[in-house]
Amino acid sequence: MCLGIPARVVAVADGDARVADVETGSTRRRVSLDMLPAGGKRVEAGDWVVVHMGFAMDAIGADEAMDILRSMAELGMAEGVGIPETAAE
After folding, report:
1. Per-residue pLDDT reduced to its tens digit, 9-63
2. What is the pLDDT of residue 25?
3. Is 35 left (phi over 0), alpha (psi -120 to 50) or beta?
4. 36 Cβ partners below 8 Å, 6+ apart?
5. Do strands 5-12 and 19-24 pair parallel, antiparallel, or not at all (unpaired)?
6. Which H helix or E strand runs over 74?
7. Residue 10 and which of 54, 57, 77, 81 are 20 to 30 A apart at CA?
8. In this structure, are residues 31 and 77 in contact, taking their beta carbons and an 8 Å threshold?
9. Topology (CATH level 3) of domain 5-80
């Protein structure tokens, strides 16, 4: 089973690198933005994306990200993801 994890964009690289630093809990990693749908909204710091295998696959809203994170926590799938306090409520 493949699972995409919601991550908050911390910073988008300048220039044509098409990469962003994202945060899941206290873990930061650099991901490629190349798989985001063409013509979609350009992601910025503070936006949420679904990350799988080092690629941002889709941009999602904060409410949807919190719903996914809450569901993951309820299913016991949140270990290591670092559910934000606002999602745990």
Report:
1. 999 987 767 899 999 888 899 999 999 988 777 899 999 999 999 999 999 999 9
2. 80
3. alpha
4. 43, 49, 56, 57, 58, 59
5. antiparallel
6. helix 62-74
7. 77
8. no
9. SH3 type barrels. (2.30.30)
Angstrom distance (rounded) from CA 16 to CA 67? 32
The length of the chain, given as a count of residues: 89
Pairing of strands 19-24, 27-32: antiparallel
> Which tokens in the block code for residue 83?
């559910």
- Which of 20, 13, 8, 16 minimizes the C-alpha distance to 68? 8
Six-digit token pair at 65? 């990200």
Amino acid symbol at 29: R
Cβ-based neighbours of 8, under 8 Å, separated by 6 or more: 22, 23, 24, 46, 47, 48, 65, 84
